[in-house]
Here is the input.
Amino acid sequence: MSLDPLIIKIAKLQNPTVLGLDPKLEYVPEFIRRKAYDKHGFTLKGAAKAVLEYNKGLINALADTVPAIKPQSAYYELLGYHGVKVLARTIEYAHKAGMYVVLDGKRNDIGTTMEAYAAAYLGGVKVGDEFIQPFGCDAMTINGYLGADGIDPVLKECKQRGKGAFVLAKTSNPSSGELQDKTIDGLAVYERMVAMCEARGAEIGGEFGFGGLGAVVGATYPEQLAELRAKYKSVFFLVPGYGAQGGKASDVAKAFDENGLGAIVNSSRAIMTAYQKEKCDERDFAGAAKREAVKMRDAIMNEIGVIKIK
Amino acid sequence: MSLDPLIIKIAKLQNPTVLGLDPKLEYVPEFIRRKAYDKHGFTLKGAAKAVLEYNKGLINALADTVPAIKPQSAYYELLGYHGVKVLARTIEYAHKAGMYVVLDGKRNDIGTTMEAYAAAYLGGVKVGDEFIQPFGCDAMTINGYLGADGIDPVLKECKQRGKGAFVLAKTSNPSSGELQDKTIDGLAVYERMVAMCEARGAEIGGEFGFGGLGAVVGATYPEQLAELRAKYKSVFFLVPGYGAQGGKASDVAKAFDENGLGAIVNSSRAIMTAYQKEKCDERDFAGAAKREAVKMRDAIMNEIGVIKIK
Here is the structure.
């Protein structure tokens, strides 16, 4: 299994992009917020309900074009447990719409605690006689600072349930180099992470040549993307930083191999707030999102050609 | 402010320990689980209700002895939004009991996303005309792999609201050395993190000589603890790994300075499951936890003497 379900969806839609669902409240169209606040007051519940309606609108509009969503956990946690409830509902809704779900929480811990994170997002928990899946995502992002003790429990869960994970390697932000670019025994820290993904990801190898442990590499570092692509052929990349952060289609093209495989590119803000940029009626927020998502797909597909799986 | 509210509580109770609230379901006494499941069925809500009652019992028993709690977010997330609701209730309950709260979530991200994490746990969110604090913790643990872009937003929130944070440096697990012990320009990665905590933590310096940015250093690495204590006098340490993981009182003693200041030592399992080890009536779980917590306090205080603040 590994990341194969994602790769199959990408190939089917001929679209290697993922919709980042980072619902800042100021992104949510006014009419949606007003309706929720009228009903629930200026409360976390009201804010969370508004986010859910917004997310559903975006998913409805994009599910036939974009293969996956990547909800950013921080924005749901910011709305307390009401937000976390909406995260679960969003995941469920996206699954019903046929989309793959990568939870972006960058979790990290050790031993049984990391097992709990993996179980929470990829697996489930035994409550009395019942086995319950609280979130049921398809993949999650993790941070490898703690070493194998933070990776093993996730790999175990992935193997058992046919799920995948993405380890932070070279993040898209300006200060990512402070630690990630430093060289240890001739290898940059970010490359060590990718090498680890290759070695450990092979434990859950997929049918299309990619292991179950992907790596996060920012679109803002196209040189590193190109080098890593050439060297670590079996590591699938999750590429943030396209659009608003500065990454261009020609930059992210470097993350793909000769079959148009090997990466999925995230865009959050540009798609979610396309209606603001277009200055269209905010009630057309989902239409604007779709137009932006199609533009992004076309720009990237124009660079990489066709996506071929065997 | 910085970490001063914590230091004041530690000195008042003459106890530099923190109760790790990592509520695995198998830790929760049978009679509490049964009651919750009878009422709510084998559901996440039932499990979460059981955890809340267990946590309250522990807090009631320990609040006059132990200055702080450190809930481990993973175990609450594992119970879905019901678990996250119980996390919020637990924090509220501990605050009413006068305890300091460190959320152990090891969060990490960049820019506005890291702002959202900091706002979620240390600050609040503007919903319409209201400013709402979803969790209202006093401090949180963070992971510095992404560089300053992941630290700045937390520092800003800390400054604004008198809160603190702890950055992962040398974690307590066996594989922590894979990255953390590697040397870059003559300095181990974990030491670079502590040096960063010293430099940046000074931006929110406290009255007792410690900055607002503490560091996580495991009890299982006493040599590193001693070296770091000697070299980075203004960095306050959060020390996991005592007890079940193998750290002894003589090990953690190395984290303290000549005034008995500079660190807080976490214990989770040994205290939470003391009733299992004692084989006492499980209805005395809180009493057993208190006995274990007192034993831990006495063992550490016996090593460090008196805790003196000016």
Q: What stands out?
A: Residues 275 and 285 of chain B are 5 Å apart (CA to CA). Chain B has a mean pLDDT of 97.
